[in-house]
Amino acid sequence: MKGSEYHTKEKVVSIPRPQTSDSSSIYGVITNIQVYSLHDGPGVRTMVFLKGCPLICDWCCNPECESPAPEVEFYKSKCVICGACLKACQRKAINPDLELKSGAKINKDLCDECGDCVKTCPVEALKFVGKVVSVDEVMEKVRKDKYFYLTSQGGLTISGGEPLYQFEFTHKLLKSAYEENIDTVIETCGYAPWRRYAQILPYLNLVLYDIKHMDPVKHKQMTGVSNRLILSNLKKLSKSGMPLVIRLPLIPEFNLDRDNIAKTAEFISNLENVIEVNLMPFHQLGKDKYCRLCREYSLKDLKALDSDAEGVAKIREIKSVLEAHGLRVTVGG
User: Fold this and answer.
1) What separation, in Å, do the N-terminal and C-terminal C-alpha atoms of the chain show?
2) Residue 274 forms beta bridges with which residues?
3) What is the spatial distance between Cα 333 and Cα 320, in angstroms, rounded to a whole number?
4) Which residues contact 195 (CB under 8 A, 6 or more apart)?
5) Verdict on whether the full-model pTM lies above 0.85
6) For 71-127, CATH number?
7) What does the pLDDT look like over 193-236, one tens digit per residue?
């Protein structure tokens, strides 16, 4: 099977492309299709989570969506310590200490995600996260909730990861939904060539757009990329007439300082077609995912922003600054 390469900080992985007799089919890699969601867009929504993102944010609550290829997860609570995976792994990536008194289950520097351990595990303690699907397969599930979209003004939301990372798949999926009069939304980090946004705009009803920091150097330190392209794309989207919801992740020790918040508020207030701003306070809901992926989570000891009075006060302060610039602000998405 042919594949496309994606460079992570650790290694190069390959996205599998199934052979098919239908040359018009387009495939992508997803982690989940979540039905009857009441967030991430208006009304009742079907959420499609794509794998692959050009950013690597330390606080990401969907780390399984960073790499575009399927990868192995370990569910410790299911493990019966039988050792079958240890025998199956040809690359010796499985920790020989089956009780895991120290270290992770899988050494990801050695693992090539071949899946031999997954096939061997008798209790499904090892699983693949990431499934190769066609646009037609996704649309079949999306159509099942069409009645709820019509009665609630809901529809399809494509998330991730970064939807434009798998551009062909996202483009075709949005076009298919549009042609069936299904409302469409994407959640995007903004880091993609402008031409890709221009191509999907005709098939979109709303864009949920992240701003993580106004300073390009600090942005690169925490996400791996500068924010220059991100802010440039946002300005262009604003002028295109596309309705926008701006999302601000609030991360302690990164972007909560008054100077950054003031610059963010001024920047957003000068944009057109902004419906509202969503404040997204830091939380630890994705912590267990890093353990399952056998990856170190650098922010595991950082407390949720809304867990104490000081954090709640900071959220209120930021909300007030944005509202003072004439913006409609909500906490959460």
Assistant:
1) 39
2) 244
3) 18
4) none
5) yes
6) 3.30.70.20
7) 999 999 999 999 999 999 999 999 999 999 999 999 999 999 99
